[in-house]
Design goal:
The complex is a heterodimer of chains A (about 325) and B (about 290).
Chain A (H helix, E strand, L loop, with lengths): L2 H28 L4 H11 L7 H11 L5 H13 L14 H36 L4 H14 L3 H15 L18 H39 L2 H8 L4 H39 L4 H11 L2 H29 L7
Chain B lengths: L1 H17 L1 H5 L1 H23 L31 H37 L1 H16 L2 H12 L4 H12 L1 H15 L2 H8 L4 H12 L1 H24 L10 H10 L8 H29 L7
Chain lengths: ~325, ~290
């Protein structure tokens, strides 16, 4: 692995993180006047019960909001590194980091399962369709992929919710587990969680499969004419062997880099899915924060998303040359 | 007068022959047809439906579909068909505005960087990568929640902040290969300025490719716009397809079984994305004839 690429990629990673932090730092300060004070007044006008002056004072002191801007920025970064994300306005005095810690596992589980299921299923289905593109059945499946790839997370989520929770109520209409339920053993608990996660995960999977399989199909079609596949055929290798070990293997690797890019899409897509299903992950927390104008919480969550997505992309990009020996970055 | 009309005719013929690819490619013609269909649906709807799409309480609440209200009314007392017609036009407007702004920015970054090369190109490429690796919807949510009072144009501007990065990256790659082609060398030798070379010789050469990327940008921009609107960060005093979803979710339309509230905007949105996809796909085939053989 060439050094300059690593340095370049690291630089982009650091700059992305820095940019995200900078935006988080600058934006609230662009609001004229004291954003906290303004926000509190607005909430009080709306009749929301919030901790008043006590909160503002505490916040001003903790974050030194009376200091000059550059010192504020240094303080901001220092507290970020220490994992201090501030205090929620609407759920004062709960710390933002506490709220995130409570909601993060749900999103992580959902994303992890959905993203990798989509990758495997999508790539293999797409490859199968591309391998014999003349077959009628596979042409039909290809059309379904095109339609799926043009669907959105929210439309699929709403449709699934309507069909499988309202029309045929086999799945719950929301939440991540049955509230107040007692479980005989850990298996029942796990089953309950999976039962609740099925529809949200399925929304992510269905939409993702369309895009992934279209890309996989395109790759397989372009690989089909390669010399090494003609040679494999001339050697008399079975069709299955040619498909699995010659075509699929070679198209699987380049798509691993796409995992990094699509991570961002899926992560943000899950925000909307979580909102629609009332699934208590980070997306739902963000939605609640946005509707309640809880700026510290919004900021904390967006910092977490920026950190998570850029780091995942960074790791995948650095690992890629180790996985695919054909790639050598200068 | 006569001269003018004949010149107009040759001009028309020139334009038509340039655009003949629209008819020859079934993807493009069906995509454009679908898009025109969505626009007509919105325009005719606005002209025909007597109800106000935004003002609350203008009709009785929570009505099921009937002759007077083909898609029923919502829980805030608004006719849903009027909302869908008006909303699809507004969504198109946001998507295209943001798409145009983002696309022009992408063109500028790609051509300035790709054609000039050097440190400027290096800097622009790094900037593009940074925007590509950042989860855009989250930053957009942050921006929109702090700006709060967004109108259509501001909304489009906010979305365009992230809409340019992906096309800038791919267009730049095209510019790099185009730069080394014979006719560009020739144009440079004959003393044309950089801008003339780019506008007169390079852009016409990759027009279908650019067109296909424009469709991609509009698609992505519409997607982000609806994403923001669904969680309540859309423009005020108006309605869009995403804002209809927002109200539908606020009033649990899905779990109350009010299918006429949320399904029609879903269908229009799907048709909109499908039409953009078909146009993009068709232009791709023209830009890259190898795709046709599949």
């Amino acid at each position: 692995m060439g050094l300059p690429y690593v340095i370049r990629r690291t630089m982009i990673y650091v700059l992305s993180l820095f940019g995200g932090v900078l935006i988080n730092f600058v934006l609230p300060r662009l609001v004229p006047g004291n954003p906290l004070q303004a926000k509190l007044l607005e909430l009080q006008r709306m009749g929301v019960r919030v901790a008043g002056q006590e909160f503002v004072d505490k916040y001003m002191k903790i974050f030194g909001l009376n200091e000059p801007l550059h010192i504020q920025f240094v303080n901001y970064i220092t507290s970020l590194i220490q994992g201090n994300l501030g205090i929620s306005i609407t759920r004062f005095p709960t710390e933002v980091r506490e709220l995130i810690a409570k909601h993060f596992p749900w999103t992580l589980g959902l994303l992890y399962v959905a993203h990798f299921t989509v990758f495997l299923v999508g790539v293999i289905l797409g490859a199968l369709v591309g391998w014999k593109s003349k077959s009628k059945l596979r042409k039909g499946v290809f059309m379904i992929f095109i339609i799926l790839s043009q669907m959105q997370y929210y439309t699929v989520a709403m449709t699934l919710l309507y069909v499988f929770a309202f029309l045929i109520p086999v799945f719950p209409i929301g939440a991540a587990y049955t509230y107040g339920a007692t479980y005989g053993n850990i298996l029942q608990y796990a089953w309950d969680i999976m039962w609740h996660a099925t529809l949200p995960a399925l929304s992510l999977v269905l939409v993702g499969i369309g895009g992934w399989s279209l890309a996989a199909r395109g790759l397989i079609v372009s690989v089909k004419g390669e010399d090494y596949l003609i040679l494999a055929k001339a050697k008399g290798l079975s069709e299955n062997r040619r498909f699995l070990f010659y075509a699929l293997k070679n198209t699987l690797l380049p798509q691993i880099t796409d995992l990094a890019i699509t991570m961002g899409f899926v992560a943000t897509g899950s925000i909307l899915v979580e909102v629609i299903f009332g699934y208590p992950g980070m997306g739902y927390l963000l939605y609640r924060a946005v509707t309640a104008l809880d700026y510290p919480l919004i900021q904390g969550i967006s910092i977490m998303y920026v950190f998570g997505v850029t780091t995942a992309g960074f790791v995948v990009d650095l690992m890629y040359p180790l996985i695919d020996p054909r790639v050598r970055y200068e | 007068m006569k001269l003018n009309s004949s010149r107009l005719k040759t001009l028309r013929n020139a334009v038509l022959s340039r655009l003949s690819f629209i008819r020859s490619n079934s993807y493009i013609s069906s995509g454009i047809g679908l898009l025109i269909g969505v626009v007509l649906f919105g325009v005719i709807g606005i002209l025909v439906i007597p109800y106000h799409p935004v003002r609350m309480g203008s009709v009785p609440r929570d009505l099921a579909p009937s002759f007077e209200h083909p898609l029923g009314t919502d829980s805030l007392g608004r006719d849903l068909l009027a909302q869908v017609c008006f909303g699809s036009l507004m969504s198109l407007q946001v998507g295209f505005l943001a798409g145009i702004i983002g696309f022009v920015a992408a063109l500028a970054v790609a051509f300035i960087g790709g054609y000039r090369g050097g440190n400027l190109d290096g800097g622009l490429t790094v900037l593009t990568e940074i925007f590509l690796t950042t989860p855009s919807l989250v930053i957009l949510i942050l921006l929109a929640s702090i700006v709060r009072k967004v109108e259509i144009l501001l909304m489009a501007l906010i979305i365009a902040i992230f809409a340019w990065a992906w096309p800038a990256k791919t267009i730049r790659a095209q510019v790099l290969s185009l730069r080394e082609r014979g006719f560009v060398y020739l144009a440079r030798l004959s003393g044309l300025s950089s801008i003339e070379i780019i506008v007169k010789h390079m852009i016409p050469n990759i027009l279908p490719f650019l067109g296909s990327y424009f469709a991609v940008v509009v698609n992505a921009a519409t997607l982000s716009a609806v994403g923001l609107e669904v969680i309540g960060l859309g423009p005020r005093h108006t309605t869009t397809l995403g804002i209809i979803f927002y109200w539908a979710m606020m009033h649990s339309a899905v779990t109350r079984g009010l299918i006429w509230w949320w399904l029609p905007p879903c269908i229009i949105l799907f048709l909109l994305f499908l039409s953009l996809f078909l146009i993009q796909r068709g232009l791709d085939e023209i830009a890259n004839p190898r795709l046709r053989g599949e």
